[in-house]
Specification:
alpha+beta, 33% helix, five-stranded mixed sheet, 4 helices, 160 residues, Aminopeptidase, 5 strands, single chain
């Protein structure tokens, strides 16, 4: 299958929000009617701010004229450390392939394109969260599990 990746820009904001909601619908097992207008608005605001500031790079994967997948990378800086001397972090997110196109290299092309985009900007620490279905692809590409990470949700008693 011939896959082409196209960088998305601010002119694609309606399409970006539409695909972001599609990804969230699948990841969180939401019914189509459960799409929250606030979620769409907040994602639109994110893209309106992050794309022009180059804090986010988004792309679409095409087979011919058909969009068959999407992805993004959130770029930010953390404090420099021995394992990340310049502090640049590239967080891959929103990696998605339309179900009928899965297993044809769409995800791998999308992730490879995003990693290269981050590398071109000097970001060397690249990480992501994965679903069980995406784990094999990421491992095949060289990603490894990260140990020693924890989180706290706002609803927990210790979050004050």
């Amino acid at each position: 299958m011939d896959i082409k990746i196209r960088k998305a820009g601010i002119a694609d904001i309606d399409l970006l929000v539409k695909w972001r909601l599609r990804v969230l619908q699948e990841v969180f097992a939401l019914a189509a009617d459960e799409q929250d207008e606030r979620l769409a608005r907040e994602n639109r605001l994110y893209y309106q701010t992050a794309l022009p500031a180059e804090g986010h790079i988004a792309c679409f994967a095409y087979s011919g004229d058909t969009i068959v997948g999407c992805g993004g990378v959130c770029l930010y800086r953390e404090m420099p450390s021995p394992d990340n001397p310049n502090g640049g972090c590239a967080y891959l997110m929103n990696i998605y392939t339309v179900p009928e196109y899965r297993g044809n290299g769409v995800g791998q092309e999308t992730v490879s394109w995003l990693i290269q985009a981050a590398k071109q900007k000097g970001f060397t620490k690249v990480f992501l969260e994965t679903s069980a279905s995406g784990r094999r692809l990421y491992q095949k590409m060289g990603f490894t599990d990260m140990a020693d990470y924890m989180e706290i949700k706002a609803a927990e008693p210790g979050y004050k």
